[in-house]
Hints:
By secondary structure, the protein is an alpha/beta fold. It is built from 14 helices and 18 strands.
Amino acid sequence: MIRFFDSIVVGAGPIGGYLSKKLNDNGHSVLLLEEHDEIGRPFQCAGLVNPAAMETIGLESSILTSIWGANIHSPNGKRVSIGDPKVPRTFSVCRKIFDEAVVMQSIATGTEIMLSTKPVSASIENEYVEVNIDGPNGSETVRCKLLCGADGAHSWVRRKFRMGNPTETMIGFQIEVTGYSGDDGMLDMYTGESIAPGFFSWAIPTGETTRLGTWTKANLMGGTSSEEFMSRLIEDKNLNSRFADCSEVARFCGPVPSGIVRRPMRERVALFGDAAGICKPTTGGGIGPGFKQVDMLVPLLSNAISENDLSEVRMKALSSKLKQMKRDQRKKRALRDAFLTEMNDAELEDIFSVWARPEVTDLINEFGDIENPIPLGVKMLREVPEFRRLAGRAAKAILWS
Ligand SMILES: Cc1cc2nc3c(=O)[nH]c(=O)nc-3n(C[C@H](O)[C@H](O)[C@H](O)COP(=O)(O)OP(=O)(O)OC[C@H]3O[C@@H](n4cnc5c(N)ncnc54)[C@H](O)[C@@H]3O)c2cc1C
């Protein structure tokens, strides 16, 4: 007997789990495949989940620390502090607990999960997709109307069906430490060519420990390893007191794919989350945008599944719904490039001098949202005369990208 499901979802990360639950909620049967023997491992994340995404999933029990503010450090150690202790901006979570709970929610709504199991081949037929899977009990052939790839940055589904590549893939490297001397409820962001060329490093409080990380792009690394950037951060003379008592308890490294792929949906196949290149170019966050993508597409896909019309034409029409997300990513990337990635350290110091002025810090506090920096970017370009000179290219980027 060949088992038949409305959908097979490859990858039981947070997006695969959430997608499976949403498909169940719409009355569809789901088989969820996970190549590892447990959920939430290996861990490759700073674990920040914004309030909107947390509300979507309702997993407050996974929160380690609520974060209301940020200290942003210039390459020479100038500091600009933003935030309001009364307004939580983001939460750091235990990803293991978070991912497991998301997947448990899908199992509770009827998803069948197979651990230590992955697809080895798949073919698109007239009425279904046939998938051969390999697991602890051997091989099996299963069929579905819709095959979903929520299988992360190196997506097998994306490669198998030649659906393109994310516009850019950053490299994230992180260590978890005890003994970091940060400020309660605040994260730290560090900038500078020597520690995170074109991007930033971070220190995120996570209860007993702190996650120290750095991210950048391979073409900006100039032959230096991520580990070396991290060592430089910890040994930086301007910042050293914060790191003096740090003791490492774990380390992780992982890709951050950003920029939706050329063909996120095709006949009977759709990509979600990291597999589709959904991460934000400004923060690397992929959980919130992945949930949004699911919320946007599942109602439309649900109709198509019910009618068993998942033709190339229909899927192409549905994927046009992602155009706005794609445009938004492009604008954010252009803004990030103009204000950060394409700045040298001297230009960044100039920017920090302006940010440090009380009236500009007030502006940042009122309009600043790292999740959506465009309103603040536009406001600063309009109201801060120095930024007109510094960020002429940002204006162009926002207007034309
Ligand atoms: C250093 C770093 C820090 C980050 N910090 C944040 C942050 O603070 N906040 C945030 O929102 N995002 C962050 N991200 C991004 C975030 O981790 C991802 O966007 C998020 O995990 C994407 O979820 P996903 O379900 O799409 O993919 P994943 O979490 O990668 O899950 C994919 C799942 O698919 C499984 N899988 C893969 N291939 C197969 C296969 N062939 N068969 C079966 N199963 C398979 C994997 O084992 C995995 O369980 C960070 C990333 C990095 C690298």
